[in-house]
Design brief:
The chain is of the alpha+beta class. The chain is 27% helix and 28% strand. It has two domains: 95 residues, no CATH class; 129 residues, 3-Layer(aba) Sandwich (Aminopeptidase). Strands 1-2-3-4-11-5-10-9-8-7-6 form an eleven-stranded mixed sheet, with helices on both faces. The N and C termini lie far apart (35 Å). The model has no long low-confidence stretch (mean pLDDT 94).
Length: 237
């Protein structure tokens, strides 16, 4: 069961990485065991995502630019099974895949924070600025994402209309993926509750997947998500 859940989560995440790369004009490709991109992907996004536990180092390294002359290659090792140290990679971080079965009751959403889709370039810019928090990466979220049928950005707003929280949803075959969840008031549990309430009301037949670590993982588990297996991200500095 956990392996099937991790497989769904990994595939969904790879589809989201592909959507982000397409928005930047850098599409990757799907193989039997990994999604890879021969060009450097946008910041914060991996150059490869393994899709099966059987994926090998060769499966990912053959499809990316991991040369010493082009530092910054990264690999999402979806099943925490690879050893890429010999290729010059180090573990950047470890996390846990999440799975929330379809059919569970929607969590009670906080009052005053309705979550609604981002539909215009102006709304997208506002969402991205709130997500970014001054890091200088708001430009990651390009208007091309608004036309992607598999991608939905949701925003929660206060009574004054200001974006206070948000999330990216990637709806693929078999799962609704959550990523880039943020909140400006540091109330992670309310953000997860509001997000999951919106997702389960829109896609009640899809399980929810994603990955988190630290306090974000704790909040997700308290909101009804279940651990589905470890992952790690490797970086060639």
């Amino acid at each position: 069961m956990s392996n099937d859940r991790a497989l769904r989560a990994a595939r969904n995440n790879a589809e989201w990485c592909e959507a982000m790369c397409r928005a930047h004009g850098r599409p990757g490709s799907f193989g039997a065991h990994a999604w890879t991109n021969t060009r450097r992907t946008p910041p914060l996004y991996p150059d490869a995502v393994t899709l099966t536990p059987e994926a090998t180092a060769a499966d990912v390294l053959a499809g990316i630019d991991a040369s010493a002359a082009s530092p910054g290659a990264s690999v999402k090792d979806s099943f925490a099974r690879l050893d890429l140290a010999a290729a010059g990679f180090e573990v950047l971080f470890e996390a846990q895949w999440l799975y929330r079965p379809a059919g569970l009751p929607a969590p009670a959403a906080p009052e005053g924070l309705p979550w609604s889709p981002v539909t215009t370039a102006g709304e997208l810019a506002e969402w991205a600025t709130a997500w970014d928090g001054g890091q200088g990466l708001a430009g990651l979220f390009r208007a091309e994402l608004l036309a992607d049928p598999t991608t939905t950005l949701l925003a929660a707003r206060d009574r004054g209309g200001r974006v206070t929280a948000g999330v990216v949803l990637s709806t693929t075959v078999g799962a609704a993926g959550i990523s880039n969840l943020f909140t400006l008031d540091d109330d992670l549990e309310s953000a997860w509750a509001g997000c999951l309430s919106a997702v389960t009301s829109r896609w009640p037949r899809l399980p929810v997947v994603g990955y988190e670590g630290g306090d974000d993982l704790t909040a997700a588990l308290r909101s009804g998500c279940e651990p589905a297996g470890p992952l790690r991200v490797w970086l060639r500095a």
